[in-house]
Structure formats: structure tokens, C-alpha cells
From TrEMBL:
Record's keyword terms, sorted: Coiled coil
Region described as Disordered: spans on this chain: 188-218
Presence of the UniProt keyword Coiled coil in the record: yes
UniProt source species: Ambispora leptoticha
Coiled coil: 135-166
The keyword Nucleotide-binding is annotated on this UniProt entry: no
Protein name as annotated: 8868_t:CDS:1
Pfam family membership, one: PLAC8
Listed InterPro entries: PLAC_motif_containing (IPR006461)
Transmembrane segments: none
Amino acid sequence: MSQASYQTQPQMMQTNIQGTSTPAPTQPMTWKHGLFDCFNNMGDCCLACWCPCIIYGKTKSKADGSDETAQCCCFFCAMCIGFWCCLGTVNRGDLRNKKNIQGGLIEDAAIWWCCTPCALVQEHQEFSDSRGPTTLQLDQRMQQQQQEIQNIRQQQQEEMQDVRQQQFLQHVDNVLLVNWQQQQQNFRTAKSSTSATSDTNAATDSTAAKSSTTSSTTTTTAVATKYNICDMRCGHCCCGE
């Protein structure tokens, strides 16, 4: 490598490091609606002229998620003591900082002192057209999501209980079926035992009958033999029978 390449390489690394460490500053923006565009929305215009505290509270609520009623009461108290211009100037500066809108303290004070309704409408329209959700909206969304998660969990628990009940009922059915089969088996065994006992008794009775018949036959044969012996000795019965 040449000496020139050794010299250019550290310069390129330095520019890359500087580029990543110091981001480019963002350019200040302008108001989306002009100061005298308040007549485009006659509802906001009338509200700013006759009830400025209401539109002020709505703008503050959309800007930083604060309580609309509290901000409305705060502006009403400032109007009662003649302090609304200072309050509006400070609030306009905060709104510009949130949106990175160009301007200054003197300009804000002049606008609020000379054109209070126009300033109120301009600020309200700026945050009404904002696409980003406010802190209050984010909290509401989080609460909704938590509620949905709880509902899902409750539904899953109910489904698990139903499944457990079905499993329990199935287990009971299986136990009853096994018991019924066991009873049937016991009944069949008892029936077969009874049949075997009956056959044995019948065989015993038959054997006894055969024995009695044999004994009677033997007795008859003995008596006949006795008579024959008497006839052979004396020609007639001499046994006195």
C-alpha cells in the first residue's frame, strides 16, 4: 500500500465516527394552520371568542394529557385576575417546544396580547390534527388492553374448568363401566359355579339310586336262595315261613 492510502484511511474513520456520534439537527417546523385560519372552523372560532377557557382546556388535554376541567378552571381564574395573557404565552411556548415549531417569547406574547382567540384556535387545530396519541389516550389504551387480557385469561380459565369437568365425567363413566363389567363377570362366575354344583348333586343322586337298586336285588337273591335250600333238604318249607 502507498503512503497516500495510509493517510486517507484515518481520515475516513474519523468522519464515520463523527457522523455517528453527532446526529444532524432537525429543522424547526411551522404551524400547520395560519394565525388567521381560525375562520375555517367557525365552531372553534365562536368557542374561542365566547368561552376561551373551554378550548384552552381541550388543547392542554390533547397536548400533555392533563385534566381538561382543571385546565379550564385554571384559565378562568387567570382571566378573572387579568393573568390570561401571561399564562397563554407560557403555554404557547410549551406547545411550540413539543412540536419543534419556530418562534420566540416576544412573538408569543404579542400574539396572545393582540389576537387571543386566533392564538387559541391555531393551537387547538395544531394538536387536533396531530396523529400521535396523547398520554391520556395511551393510558386508556393500556387499560383497554389490560381489560382484554383479563377477559382472555378468564375465558381460558372457564374453558379449563369445562375441560376438567368433562375429564372428570369421563373418568366417572369409565369407573362405572369397569364396575358393571366386573359385576357381570362375577355373575357369570357364580352362575357357572351353581351349574357345576347342580350337576354334581344330580350325579350323586343317580349313584345313590343305583346303590339302592343293587342292594334290593341282592336281598331278593338271598331270600330266594334260602327257599331253595329248604326245598332241597326236606321237600317243603321248614323254616316256618
